[in-house]
Amino acid sequence: MAAEVNTFDPLDYLDAKRARRLDRFSQFGLAAAQMAIADARLDMERVERERVGVYIGSALGGIAYAEAQHSDFVVEGLRGVNPMLALAVFSGASSANVAMDIGAHGPSIGNANSCASGTIGVGEAYHAIKSGEIDAAVAGGVEAPLAPLTFGAFAIIKVLSTYNACPAEASRPFDRDRDGFVMAEGAGLVILEELGHALRRDAPIYAEVLGFGITSDAYHMTAPRPDAVQAARSITLALQEAGLPPTALEYIAAHASATVLNDKTETLAIKRALGDHAYRIPVSGTKGMHAHSLGASGGIELVICALVLERGVLPATVNLFTPDPACDLSYVRDRPVERRITYMLKNSFGFGGVNAALVLGRVS
User: Which residues are catalytic?
Assistant: First the structure.
């Protein structure tokens, strides 16, 4: 079972020749970038292209395409392999193709930091803009991992849900009976700009990035550090950069992968970072609705966060049937809640103990 993007047609976004040359994750990236640029009303003919960057994360890049090509290779040899294979599957292919598509001559960076990749892409773009290196960036995450070997690799390490009889209820963030995530594909990209640059061109602004924190557990490849010290520190670093106390936060968009270890460790990290205030903040984990698209998840969830700030609606944590005593925060359950907030936190965590956090604010 998986959350597939089953209505996607790459020919809606690029010509047939180019579509054949690209892996599905790069096709997703181009489509999402085009939509983001259109929504932001960003005219690349009227900006300084050398000051526009591309920062796109992907945990696995073109691994699913490589798997399919290997099957062809076994049967037909090199004659059966797409000549563009090497250029299609590396993790930076999406960012490179987006940069070429829009003519962005600033940094083009594709990171592969597991399930934190999308959030790290946004954080790196934010720091590049804040430092004055660039004025704007396409940032977020893309992923197209749905293939047998990939499923097998994650099944072996027991992080996938086995509620196969009812896929819609399989991803259960913070639930006592959660048993892993449901794999997904997709893309979530945004346009980040220096505020003055956006205001001068009267751009539609959904939210403002105020702080970014990133740390490493340096503990284990699949298990988070049990005391959550470094995960908590990523949150603290993001708050410090934002210049906000923990009590300023009014909502948390959790990583909430629905794995046994992640959800309780993330809960502990939030409590370590925010103290008693952690119990007073509504928390959502949205992967019960859109599943876990690995490196794309941070980008997709950032789009959700931007809409939370713009529309004043907190999404629900679905499939939270029986609360886990170790996950004892104030989770938004069953249905969305209308609430206008000013500051919020977005968490993402990845294999290898990568911890990333963003503090976002509403633009008044």
Answer: 115, 255, 292
